[in-house]
Amino acid sequence: MLTGVQIVLAGGDARQLEVIRRLTELDATVTIVGFDRLDTPFSGVVKAEWSADILKQVDALVLPAVGTDDEGIISTLFTDQELKLTDAHLAEMPKTSKVITGMAKPYLRKLCEKYHVELIELFERDDVAIYNSIPTAEGALMMAIQNTDITIHGSNCIVLGLGRTGFTMARTLQAVGARVKVGVRRDEAFARAFEMGFEPFYMPELARQAGNIDLIFNTIPTMIITAQVIAQLPLRACIIDLASKPGGTDFRFAEKRGIKALLAPGLPGIVAPKTAGRIIANSLTQIILEDNRLRGNRP
Ligand code: NAP
């Protein structure tokens, strides 16, 4: 249980509702900021105005999936107020407290470093990335269906990268009957892709593999679908770029050639906010529970 643990949860979207629900189930003392328009109140949860004072006794400040933007603004769906995280807030936080978010931009990293407050980025954790790959692959499949005039069954697909997202993407496509080629750079990944029944190739081969492709799903966060690759794609091809912004596609050249190329960030929060919220809530409560157990200073 999290009895006596003080959590301030600032901003966010529908995913944070699952987090609030889980924290209250575990009896944490939860203060929420930026939820003025939330109709369904959570019993025992206090709504507060955004100020440094509410962070004086906090054990964890929970921020949305992307902690803040480059100016410190915390994204909020349930209020018109602007929430900005500044030096004044971090200065008030106890040194033993944590900031927990999905992923942090340099602004938040620097602020936490400056005030020696631990920053936890949930999306960096393997378990969270693997769980998140499920709604990501489902969302990408949905986009593929929406943006093609053929079935995914029987289509020729390429998945670039066999990491946590690429694996699930390739398996999901295979499960609906697509022919799946996988672009990798390591021998182990090549062998694993072969073992799983995909057609593996090494990345320098990409342009040569592009000839008869209906769909490319990219998970590699670097420029990989270059003009040279796009030039080889048939005009019917569709690129779905899942890698974090700015993606790994030469979008300018794709547009020039008339090839559909879509950058698709944040799919879990879009296609399955409840599941995505549960994934965050599970991981976050596990971290706070473990921290609480290690400190052994709570009932
Ligand atoms: P990951 O597990 O680290 O996988 C990345 C893959 O890219 C690995 O297979 C890696 O190969 C490969 N790679 C990296 N640089 C490469 C290069 N220069 N050449 C060839 N291969 C390269 O990461 P992930 O968790 O799958 O996430 C992948 C991307 O998707 C990230 O940008 C992440 O932010 C994004 N993402 C997007 C969504 C969404 O909704 N769109 C959801 C989740 C994640 P090695 O194994 O050889 O290192």
TrEMBL record:
Pfam families named among the record's database cross-references: DpaA_N (PF16924), KARI_N (PF07991)
Domain of life assignment: Bacteria
Stretches assigned to the Dipicolinate synthase subunit A N-terminal domain: 6-123
Xref: SUPFAM superfamilies: NAD(P)-binding Rossmann-fold domains
Gene3D superfamilies linked to this entry: NAD(P)-binding Rossmann-like Domain
InterPro entries: Dipicolinic_acid_synth_A (IPR014215), DpaA_N (IPR031629), KARI_N (IPR013116), NAD(P)-bd_dom_sf (IPR036291)
Ranges of residues in domain KARI N-terminal Rossmann: 152-224
Record's protein name: Dipicolinate synthase subunit DpsA
Organism, as annotated: Cohnella cholangitidis
Taxonomic path: Bacteria, Bacillati, Bacillota, Bacilli, Bacillales
